[in-house]
Amino acid sequence: MDASVVELLAAAAFGFAGGMVGGLIGVGGGVLFVPALVLFLDQSQLEANSTSLLAIVFVAALGAWRQHGYGNVRLRDALLVAALSPLGVVAGVVLSNNVSERFLELSFAALLVLIAVRLVVRALRPAEPARDG
Amino acid sequence: MKLAAIGTAAGAFSGMFGVGGGTVIVPLLILWFGFGERLATGTSLAAIVLIALFAVALQGAYGNVDPLKALVVAVPALGGVVIGTAVQQRLPERAISLMFAALLIVIAVKLVVG
Question: Which helix (H) or strand (E) holds B107?
């Protein structure tokens, strides 16, 4: 690895922030790991996507264990969600090795905007009775 | 059936974008299953462990994974996730949704602008 000390520290800071975000909103942290790997550790989008997954395994495992302690994990539902994911993963990995990186970036961006809009709409609507939060 | 559909979609995004699929799992658990934000995020993390494990094995076979660089971001992230989950327990659930949305928009803009 030929990154400078500053680049390593910046990547580590993004990593910390990614873990924090992961704990706060239930994602693995890839949304920050990927840019850190591209911007500071000289990886291509595809390499960063892949390397990020390895970091996510550890972070999500620790986060899930903590959330389980807080009573916020439905293990059975998590297993069901994960059960059929290998089919999707195979399709996604093969696709990502056969389309342009710009297309990946733009499609990722479009997906994120779509999800964001739906969450904001939901969070801002009037509260339902007997709903906690 | 719906849970399995969420898993398949999450897996595809995981393989394509290098995210564990949480960006798909959390909103769908909330919107389709009426999970509260905390329950959705906790359950999402548990599913992500398995999904990312499978995806990284495949991408590793393509030679796209750099374990050393993964450690540079993962080690500090372990501290971050412990703090993040602890802080989350004290937040109103709507705030979790709004933070989620804000972060997604920022990342999307960065991706498009480059």
Answer: helix B93-113
pTM of the model as a whole: 0.83
- Chain A residues with CB under 8 Å of B15 CB are 88-96
What token pair was written down for B69? 């660089």
d(CA B91, CA B87): 7
Q: What is the pLDDT of residues A66-95, one digit of tens each?
A: 999 999 999 999 998 888 788 887 887 787
In angstroms, the separation between the Cα of residue B62 and the nearest Cα of chain A is 9
Domain segments of chain A as ranges: 1-77, 84-125
Give me the domain span that covers residue B24: 2-113
What does the pLDDT look like over B66-96, one tens digit per residue?
999 999 999 999 999 999 999 999 999 899 9
Q: Which residues, 6+ apart, have CB-to-CB distance to A49 below 8 Å? A: A30, A34, A96, A104, B16, B17, B18, B59, B64
**Chain A, nearest residue to B91 by Cα:** A133
